[in-house]
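Hi P.,

Sorry for the delay on this. The queue was packed all week, but I finally got your sequence through. Input first:
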Amino acid sequence: MRKKEIMDLAIEKAKKNMNSGKGGPFGAAIVKDDKVIVVTSNSVLKDQDATCHAEMNAIREASKKLGTYDLSDCELYATGYPCPMCMGAIVWANIGKVYYGSELEDATDIGFRDEAFYDGIKEDKLEEIVNLKELSHKECVDLLQEYNKKSKEMY
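Then the structure:
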């Protein structure tokens, strides 16, 4: 399939989802070896879960389908520039290539907050958005060290 055809699948999924009232105007697809693995949409409203962005749903479904968290041999297609949460998941899943449709500013123009989160990260102002307080530092570092001593898999 051509890249445009794959993006069209994500757009169609987003339209159907948006018009059903299950979530916002966002779709995503994950491709491996030129084969579409999953096509998903945003399901925040349906699932009442703020993490159910199209990209997050795509990563979850593709990981289950492929039996791995490591999607380094996959590409992601998203109808919008990924928000910081989704970008973090993309990095953790080792997805090296992302094609996106609309820009952050386009989503901001209709009321989504993605750009504000990126601005908070860039300007080191996250603590203006979220009240972050360290607690039980030693115990939590001990937990990390215990995991490390067990030679567990790093991901």
